[in-house]
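Many introductory courses stop at the sequence. We go one step further.
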Amino acid sequence: MSAPATPVLPPTMRAWVRTKRGLPKNTLRLASDIPTPACPAGSSSDVLIRVSHVALQFNSEFFLNLLPPVPCFGSRTWVPELEFSGEVVAAGSNAPPEVRDVGTRVVAFQTIPGLALGYGVLAEYVRLPGTQAAPLPEAVDFIQASGVTGAGCTALKLMRKSGVKQGQRVLVNGASGSVGSVLIQTLKVRGIYVVGIASGPNEAMVRGWGADEFVDYRAHGESLPTFLTETYGAKPFDFIMDCAGTQALFAGSPGYLKPEGALLNIGALEGVFKTTGNLLSNLFRPAWLGGVPRRYIFFSSPPMREDAVILTQLMGEGKLKVPVDSVFDMKDLLASYERVATKRARGKVVINVRAD
């Protein structure tokens, strides 16, 4: 069987690149002269993807402020963002068979090390290992699919790490966020009773994802742990999954979390330094010195292809939806980051790379 012909691609492409550390509006520019990645050849395991949509990360601003703008190794330019959807335009012979054919619809992701080296995905074409792409069912649109890997893989790892079982009770904090929304849906697929915490205006949305009960944190303020104790103390939760990172929720957890239960935290809403201090205290401070007598688990979760396959299958079966707050054209990226910065986005903020 003859090898597929090498596609004819434009020599350059559009991509957003960073010139220095700082806020997006001060550091990013849309370039139109970035060399298009070379097509994978021979026994390469890479795939070259024409990008359709890119989902922005809530912590992008953190990376833009932290990482050097021009890596010592890797790409000569620094392109932001991690997860996207698109179509395969070329693949090496050792790429996974499911994503090897030209025209295959995929979701894909860059790794944190890849991003640190400058190989982000806010570009018209992206080349990466085929193990970082998964096939996308025809029934799922590119917009929703672009934001499923980061939040979805984290949600699946939360369930695995906790060991939560059918019939148990879980309290989800940050239930209206990108991870919380996917987490609720995947918990309900497993037959788990879910109580979601978010702001009042998001109640209908959170219940629509399957939450059995809803708690408006704004209605209780600093007395939220007291309310949870009074409401759920007689029937405490097996696990608390904190997608926001609220220390008070863990501090008051003996009132509404079973002694053998655990709080799993993936959020840093209170800031990196405060979260780090809380992490050390929660993990190592014994109860006789004022520590909380409950297990505390904190972790980060890089996407994995195996999980991406599971997630896209659930989407294709209509069992999982990724909420999308808004879609911006490629040229309007800076406005989209401003939307993310408000922390009021009700779902993913997505960039349409193919829009002029």
